[in-house]
Amino acid sequence: MKKIIDLRSDTVTQPTPDMREAMARAEVGDDVYGEDPTINQLEALGAEMAGKEAAVFVPTGTMGNQVSIMAWTDRGDEIIVESNAHIFMYEAGGPAVLSGVQVRTVPGTRGAMDPDDVKAAIREDDLHCPRTSLICMENTHNRSGGCVLPLDNMKAVYELAKEEGIAVHLDGARVFNAAAALGVDVKQITQYTDSVQFCLSKGLCAPVGSLVAGPKEFIEKARRCRKILGGGMRQAGILAAAGIVALEKMTKRLAEDHEKARKLAQGLSGIPGLDIDMSTVQSNMVLVGTKGTGMDASGFASLMKSHRLLFNPSTQYKVRMVTHNDVGFDDIDEAIRRVKEALSA
Ligand SMILES: *Cc1c(COP(=O)(O)O)cnc(C)c1O
Fold first, then answer.
1. 207 in ligand 1 pocket by Cβ < 6 Å?
2. To test ligand 1's pocket by mutation, which of 62, 84, 147 has the most ligand atoms within 8 angstroms of CB?
3. Most ligand 1 atoms within 8 A of CB, residue of 12, 83, 90, 138 to mutate
4. N or C, which terminus of the chain has less Cβ within 10 Å?
């Protein structure tokens, strides 16, 4: 039986041996009382790395975004997000359900909103209108295939928000991938946001968890919102121990995943019927157009599943492949071989 090569997402990564060891040894306490030393250490480390005053550990990236929205807004407010943002597409209507805010979308180019469009979407001070209280960006941008927001775009949106007195949140589920792709310290990115959420559980390989970082007062509110959502955990230092390994070690190896994605994209782009825009291959994802094969995305994905190569459809005629720590360069070669074989059969 051929080995399964799983390119569905970097969320499928297994915790590393270092992580399991750190988890076994972790000193823990009741984190709702603030008494888990390992959680406290992870939160301090995350805040420092993001260049923010404080941080709070949450079970998922989705909860990280939702507590951030809840902490920055009042009911009846409006938040601005890019039209393919995870917050808008994949968080089950959370902003409406949990925070009572409505979402206004602004179209983006590879995830980047034009600051003029953002400006035009900000509500005027009028009692008929909702109040715009938050602007969200996403970096790397998931739906565009892991594209990296240009720093000057983030800066322009952030400066505009500050002029208008509006808070900015970054959905930085993969912000360390963005930093690796740009070759900058992550603070170069997070300087252009008030709060940031980042996932420890994706390319960084921790089994569970995200951090929200931001100003002290905001983090206190976010901690309360986390409690409302049922995310106040007890001896969660077991999880935080893996998160510390994720931040200290695994952030340093993400460039390797990007190299694998480029290798995969180059290999697949030579195959008749497949269509890849190499300029969008910027981090650990590859979007592959399938129209030329005569199959739609789900048809192509199920064909390749029968060859034990896994990936998900993204749109009707595009599949998404994601590289990560648990696929090696040799697996990438093998994946390209299997696609070639399947399509020439
Ligand atoms: C994965 C992801 C999230 C949500 O993280 P979960 O831990 O799966 O809830 C949020 N935003 C983006 C951009 C993501 O890719």
1. no
2. 62
3. 90
4. N
User: What is the pTM assigned to this prediction?
Assistant: 0.97
Contacts of 189 (CB under 8 A, 6+ apart): 139, 151, 154, 170, 172, 175, 178, 179, 182
Does 61 contact ligand 1 (Cβ within 6 A)? yes
125: CA distance to ligand 1 center in Å? 33
Q: Which helix (H) or strand (E) holds 108?
A: strand 108-109
> Is residue 58 a contact partner of residue 46, using CB atoms and an 8 Å limit?
no
The structure tokens listed for 188 are 């170069």
- How many domains does one find in the chain? 2
User: What is the CA(87)–ligand 1 centre distance, in A?
Assistant: 8
pLDDT at 246 over 90: yes
Which of 248, 263, 279 lies at the terminal end of a domain, its last residue? Answer: 248
Q: What are phi and psi of 54, to 5 degrees?
A: -150, 170
Residues 97 and 216 in one domain: yes
Q: Residue 1 pLDDT more than 90?
A: no
Residue having the nearest C-alpha atom to atom 14 of ligand 1: 173
Per-residue pLDDT tens digits for 127-154: 999 999 999 999 999 999 999 999 999 9
- φ, ψ (nearest 5 deg) of residue 105: -100, 145
Nearest to 175 by CA among 156, 191, 189, 159: 189
**Does the CB atom of residue 86 touch ligand 1 within 6 A?**
yes
Instruction: Verify that 293 and 219 share a domain, yes or no.
Output: no
Amino acid at residue number 92: A
For the chain, how are helix, strand and coil distributed in percent, rounded to 5? 45, 20, 35
